[in-house]
Structure formats: structure tokens, C-alpha cells
Amino acid sequence: MTKPYLYVIDIDGTVANNKHREHYIKRVKPDWDGFFSDEEVIKDKAIPEARKHFKDGEFIHGEHKWLTARVEISRAVTAEWLKKTGFVTEWDGSGQLRVEVARRVEPHDPSIRGCEDESKRV
Predict the structure, then answer these.
(1) DSSP string covering 11-33, please?
(2) Where are the domains of the chain?
(3) Which among 40, 67, 90, 122 is placed 20 to 30 Å from 111, CA to CA?
(4) Distance between CA atoms of 101 and 62, rounded to whole angstroms?
């Protein structure tokens, strides 16, 4: 019996356009608190191409996990943003993977079809 694929989806740069926050980290001394502040994160825009893969808060291609380098303090606002933009109907932050975890897991798990991330690092 074939195991269903697991899709791993990055948040920033893949479903969330966070370019309006980049000025916080493109400095000699990055301001990570500003970059991850609730007031800024909630202003992220959904990337239209990503919306095509979700319907009624569900990923249309199968089971998925969210991948993020976001810090723990932004978990609640991330859940709020994902609901507000229609990527989920309910989410408490569980099932979230960090980039470092995905790097270790993906090559060894045949059920993971690929990691979708805006960078070449994953």
C-alpha cells in the first residue's frame, strides 16, 4: 500500500508576502523583534499563486505541514493570519516545522514529496 505524500509548505515568501517587513532585517544590526512583531506580521499579504492550492481552508493536494523560521512569539499571529487569509479554517500552530527540522527529515522520508520554500537552502 502506497503511503500518501506529505507536502511541506513554507510560510514566508511562499504563501505570505513579507517584503514590507524586510527593512527591519536589512540593516547592519537586524531588528528581529520588529520583523516578527504582531503589528507587522498581520499586514502580510497572501501570495495569489499560493491561494490556488487551497480551497475552504484546505490544501487541495493532500496532507501538509507548515514550514517556518518564524519565532515562537509569532505563533498566535501566524495562526490568525493563516485563518484570515483562508489558508486554514482552524490552526493552533501544531504541525509546524522549522527549516532546520525539514532539512533533516525530507531526504530520509519517502512520504515527503518535496519542500516548497522561496530559498535555495531547503
Answers:
(1) SBTTTEE-GGGGGGTSSSS--HH
(2) 6-17+46-116
(3) 90
(4) 21
Number of Cβ atoms within 10 Å of the Cβ of 65? 18
Q: How far is CA 51 from CA 26, 32, 38, in A?
A: 28, 27, 22
User: Taking the model in full, what pTM does it have?
Assistant: 0.73
Q: How far apart are the two ends of the chain, measured CA to CA in Å? A: 29
> Contact at 8 Å (CB) between 60 and 91?
no
Q: Is 78 exposed, middle or buried (0-12, 13-18, 19+ CB in 10 A)?
A: buried
The pLDDT of residue 69: 81
Q: How many CB atoms lie within 10 A of CB 72?
A: 9
Sign of CA dihedral 110, 98, 115, 52: positive
Q: 32-55: per-residue pLDDT in tens?
A: 999 999 999 999 999 999 999 998
Angstrom distance (rounded) from CA 118 to CA 87: 18
